[in-house]
Design goal:
It is a single chain. With about 375 residues, the protein is an alpha/beta fold. It has a domain at about 5-155 and about 245-350: 3-Layer(bba) Sandwich (FAD/NAD(P)-binding domain), CATH 3.50.50. About 30% of the residues lie in helices and about 25% in strands. The protein is built from nine helices and 18 strands. The protein has helices at about 15-25, 50-55, 95-110, 210-220, 220-225, 270-290, 295-320, 320-330, 335-340; strands at about 5-10, 30-35, 45, 70-75, 80-90, 110-115, 120-125, 125-130, 135, 135-140, 160-165, 170-180, 180-185, 190-200, 230, 235-240, 255, 370-375. The strands form three sheets. Strands 3, 4, 5, 11, 12, 13, 14, 15, 16 and 18 form a ten-stranded mixed β-sheet that branches. A five-stranded parallel β-sheet has the order 6-2-1-10-17. Helix 1 packs parallel to helix 3 (about 95-110). The longest helix is centred in the C-terminal third of the chain and has 28 residues, at about 295-320. Bound molecules: flavin-adenine dinucleotide. Flavin-adenine dinucleotide binds next to helix 1, strand 2, strand 14, strand 16 and helix 6.
């Protein structure tokens, strides 16, 4: 394998964003990815304004890729549901479609994408080595997957499940707490995405049918959304050990930690892909400006820590007191929009980007419907 100016491990949103930016600037980029084709992974598939702005910067439009606009949010528990207009329009898009488009953009920019499962990385005299290739810098973008030689991350036992379904759906994301965690249910352009985060020790459903029954049993709104839904897989996709709240503040010389390796926000916020894409772009900018990895990592951590902390609080409130959280969402109309804004990484200077109907904080702009009851 030939040497490169930058080694990137993982062709998810973080790795591809960095690869596109560096390759466009003329750097020789070697992108190592274990899966030959992009595939579905556990993700709620909600693209918020940070992700949209970053994608625009990379030359991708998720709506043109078939994504569904999502201008509203509903919180529902038991017989109650509270609905609000989001302060921005989210976009729902299957991960396989997004990740494939990102890989194609990286190749088009000039990055060399090689299928390889990296077992370990090591620092040496020539820089960082992985799978026999060496480069002065390594950008670690393996998502939640650990690697030998990489800095350890705190263990955590949250589990994520995802299921795609064929169904018609209103243009809104539903946040559905259930005993043991919370789920997001939303249109994705071709059907529905159901994604759930389970607390440590929570009982997991055995198959797709049990998963749907669990969500439908937790709220009348969830049951209504799932009434005509048909699962596309017999079992949901799963991931274990999700370290919500993790923020990497330090890093060894020459090692840039991106995406979930840099920071993991509660899934409830729908901001993980925004963090991943933004970290890839910002790391590439740091490399091109000659800044070292430690400076980048500290700056990115400082940026990410507040929205991650707030998302953790909001997710804990939703899980521990779902009935109260649903009532508050109905009693205080702008509350959901405020939480949605408080859990964003921010525009990050992507001001030249076109973002779908992005409306930044304007106190009078959050319409909300009163708490409603469904049977
Ligand atoms: C339950 C749940 C719901 C979520 N919902 C949302 C949501 O609605 N909106 C949102 O924005 N975010 C959401 N997220 C978060 C989002 O999925 C992640 O933050 C995002 O995918 C991180 O991107 P990444 O590029 O860092 O990693 P990934 O997307 O995981 O990509 C990592 C890549 O590295 C590759 N790789 C891994 N190990 C190796 C190796 N050893 N060698 C070579 N290649 C390797 C993988 O194959 C993969 O392609 C959710 C997460 C969970 C768990």
């Amino acid at each position: 394998m030939t040497d490169a100016e930058a080694l990137i491990i993982g062709a998810g949103p973080a790795g591809c964003a960095a690869a596109i930016m560096l390759a466009r600037a003329g750097r020789h980029v070697l992108l190592l990815e274990r899966d030959a084709e992009a595939r579905e992974i556990v993700c709620g598939e909600f693209l918020g304004p940070t992700a949209q702005a970053a994608l625009a910067r990379l030359g991708l439009d998720p709506v043109a890729l078939g994504g569904a606009l999502i201008p509203r949010v509903v919180v529902a528990h038991g017989s109650r549901a509270a609905r609000a207009t989001l302060p921005f329009a989210g976009i729902g898009l299957p991960r396989q479609v997004l990740d494939q488009a990102l890989r194609q953009a990286a190749i088009a920019a000039g990055a060399q994408l090689v299928t390889a499962t990296v077992r370990r990385i090591a620092a040496g005299r020539g820089g960082w080595t992985a799978e026999g290739a060496t480069a002065p810098i390594l950008l670690l973008a393996t998502g939640k997957h650990a690697l030998r030689g990489a800095p350890p991350r705190p263990g955590a036992a949250w589990v994520g499940l995802k299921l795609h379904m064929t169904a018609d759906a209103a243009p809104e994301v539903a946040l559905l707490p259930f005993p043991g965690g919370y789920a997001g249910l939303q249109p994705n352009g071709t059907g529905l995405t159901l994604c759930a985060a389970f607390r440590p020790g929570a009982l997991l459903p055995a198959d797709a049918g049990a998963f749907l029954a669990m969500i439908a049993g937790a709220s009348a709104h969830g049951a209504a959304m799932l009434r005509d839904a048909r699962p596309m897989w017999t079992r949901p996709l799963a991931i274990a050990g999700v370290p919500y709240g993790h923020v990497a503040r330090t890093t060894p010389p020459g090692l840039f930690r991106l995406g979930d390796q840099a920071a993991v926000i509660a899934s409830f916020a729908g901001e993980g892909m925004g963090i991943a894409l933004a970290s890839g772009i910002m790391a590439a900018e740091a490399v091109l400006a000659g800044r070292d990895a430690a400076t980048f990592q500290a700056a990115f951590a400082a940026r990410a820590v507040r929205p991650i902390r707030r998302a953790g609080w909001a997710a804990a409130g939703l899980c521990r007191a779902p009935g109260l959280a649903t009532r508050i969402a109905g009693w205080v109309p702008p509350a959901m929009a405020r939480v949605a804004l408080a859990t964003r990484l921010g525009r990050l200077g992507f001001k030249d980007s076109v973002v779908h109907k992005l409306v930044l904080p304007d106190k009078g702009d959050h319409r909300s419907e009163a708490l409603s009851r469904q049977t």
